[in-house]
Amino acid sequence: MIDLLYFAWVRESIGIGHERATPPAEVADVAGLIDWLAMRGGGYAEALGDKTRLRAAVDQLFVPLDASIAGAREIALFPPVTGG
Amino acid sequence: MIVTETAIDIAAELDALERAGGGAVATFTGLVRDDGGVEELFLEHYPVATEKALSDLAAEAARRWSLAAATVIHRVGAMAPGERIVFVGAAAAHRAEALEACAFLIDRLKTDAPFWKRETRGQDARWVGERDSDRDAADRWKRS
Question: Around B21, how many Cα atoms within 13 Å sit in the side-chain half-sphere?
Fold first, then answer.
């Protein structure tokens, strides 16, 4: 089981900020996870359909979308950051 | 390094920086702009990752410059125009180090820390998009 976290408009489109899921073994990286989640359709497809608009963190560390998710406990998906 | 839902007390923060034993203190304060009728600015963040990003930034500043103290405070939650969103300060022996460290902290915070802004104007709520100028400002610290 992986904890999945969503922020900003990704959270609003999907409709929840946190859930737990077990992706199938063939999902190897963050991009694969995004595609797998987007297949659920609805708000998932809307939020996750365009990967160029998404950033990710694996276990609280910012990573590129081709980063492996092997052994990950927490994966966050969100838009580019806009703080400060 | 603090993420807070309450107002930033600049006088107290400045006082702490001045007591750190340096000869120079530089600070930056970011305020909510009203940008065409913004009534509310909401700041969302990714709690554990935010704290890690801010302490990593402070650690990098401490490696690059000899600092007596560094402070980063970021508001989260709902704010009105004119309120303080972010406060960054650096204390060092001389002004160059304090000024450079302060600029580094705010430039890199903008691209490295997981905060997101949502502006509300009347019935219209809109998430703020990424700015290329912010990325360029952060990138200059990678070259030097």
Answer: 4
Cβ distance B114 to A79 less than 8 Å, yes or no, reads no
Answer yes or no: is A44 within a domain.
Answer: yes
Pairing of strands B2-4, B24-31: unpaired
Q: What is the pLDDT of residues A41-81, one digit of tens each?
A: 999 999 999 999 999 999 999 999 999 999 999 999 999 99
With contact defined as beta carbons under 8 Å apart, do B88 and B109 qualify? yes
Residue A83 lies in a domain: no
Phi and psi dihedrals of B120, rounded to 5?
-120, 125
Q: What is the pTM of this model?
A: 0.93
Pair of tokens at residue B8: 């930033």
Closest chain A residue to the Cα of B118, Cα to Cα: A8
In-domain check, residue A34: yes
Does A84 map to a domain?
Answer: no
User: Is the reported ipTM for this assembly greater than 0.90?
Assistant: yes
A23: containing domain: 2-78
| Number of CB atoms found within 10 A of residue B55's CB | 12
* CATH code for the part of the protein at B2-137: 3.90.1170.40
CB contact under 8 A, A82 and B86: no
Please judge whether A82 and B115 are an interchain contact, meaning their C-beta atoms are less than 8 angstroms apart: yes
